[in-house]
Amino acid sequence: MKPAWLLLVALAAAALSTSARSQGLDYGRIEIATDQIAPNLYMLSGSAGLDPAHEAAAGGRIGVLAGPDGILMVDAQYAELADKVLAAVKRISSAPIRFLVNTHIHRDHTGGNAKFAKLGATIFAREELREGMGKARSVNGSPVPASDPAAIPVVTYGLGEPVKFHLNGEIVDLIPVRAAHTGGDTMIRFENANAIMIGDYYRNFGYPFIDINNGGSLQGMLEALDATMKVARSDTRLVPGHGTIIKRADLIPYRDMIFAIQGKVQQMIAQGKTQQDVLAAHVTSPYDPTVPGGLLPAAGGGTSADRFISEVYQELKGGGR
Ligand SMILES: [Zn+2]
Predict the structure, then answer these.
(1) Ligand 1: centre distance to CA 12 (Å)
(2) Cα–Cα distance for residue pair 126/107, rounded to 1 Å
(3) DSSP 90-159
(4) In angstroms, rounded to a whole number, what is the distance separating the alpha carbons of residues 137 and 200?
């Protein structure tokens, strides 16, 4: 017979893994894969099939610009993966991580901020992001506590001219976009690598996500897509926070889809329909076969299609912003 303490340890371990699973994520099983997309630019992403909110790759994608001048990182994944992310960065380069830029506030992009700041990185982000991180907030109705003070960006900027880095022979532009996926979105362009990290205002797994509670807006999302089309060349690689890397031409059907759905919802509002009526009409159905993950459950309840339609309805009903 096993001693009682061993049974207790086993029970405690089982309880821990159950609580990790009950949050939908078993971080211990997630590995970080590295893809080199230019001579000194790398993309890191989590394992597929382990994060219900992001089936294609757990958490948000990270960019690493490496070289003798030190490392610039874009985004910082879930806090729980910070040690694995650090190990992946160290496999690329032993240079210090000097700068960290956040595309937006969500914890699958900023969770590791405190870890990298404590290692010496200076965090850059939009003013709106800094403001949001300093207070308790909610995402999809789930409370998010105020962040560790170390996680909060030190250098902030508004909607003006891009912030430029000259590092490792590369020019990196932090280009602010109007309130889109959240109120503090930035696209990050690597001029020589001819790549732009576009955060989550575009996605190709699930329908668009406008996080109204964190300042996102439908109008801003359309403007952000337009702004990206202006900045990108036809052969520029556009790297979303989740899903596959795309080109400029891929933005066009995406934007058209948002416009078409906006038009249908607007029409139903004009006919006096309620949000429930609009959800019941399944206005995304022409797009469902071509939007992978569109009908999977999204955080906050319902499918990602339902979440998107609800956001469009609320913004249009509220008269836009
Ligand atoms: Zn996001």
Answers:
(1) 33
(2) 15
(3) HHH--S-EEEEE-SSS-HHHHTTHHHHHHTTPEEEEEHHHHHHHTS-EEETTEEEPPPPGGGS-SEEE-S
(4) 19
Strand 142-144 and strand 97-101: pairing? unpaired
Domains present along the chain, CATH in parentheses: 29-250 (3.60.15.10), 258-317 (no CATH)
Task: For residue 133, report the distance from its CA to the centre of ligand 1, in Å.
Answer: 14
Tell if the pTM clears 0.85, that is, is over it. yes
Centre of ligand 1 from the C-alpha of residue 116, in Å: 20
Count CB atoms within 10 A of the CB of residue 173.
17
Q: Residue range 56-63: average pLDDT?
A: 94
DSSP, res 246: B
Computed over every residue of the chain, the mean pLDDT equals 91
- Name beta bridge partners: 116: none
CA distances from 312 to 70, 158, 263 (A): 42, 25, 10
At 186 the three-state DSSP class reads: strand
Is the C-alpha dihedral spanning 239, 242, 245, 247 positive or negative?
negative
Distance of CA 196 to CAs 81, 192, 238, Å? 24, 11, 5
Q: Is the pLDDT of residue 157 over 50?
A: yes
User: CA-to-CA distance for 214 and 89, rounded, in angstroms?
Assistant: 30
Give dist(CA 176, CA 52) in Å, integer: 29
197 CA distance to ligand 1 middle (Å): 13
44 CA from centroid of ligand 1 (Å): 16
Work out the average pLDDT over 37-55: 92
Does residue 13 surpass a pLDDT of 90? no
- Give me ligand 1 centre to Cα 68, in Å: 31
- pLDDT of amino acid 54: 85
Cα–ligand 1 centroid distance for 57 (angstroms): 13
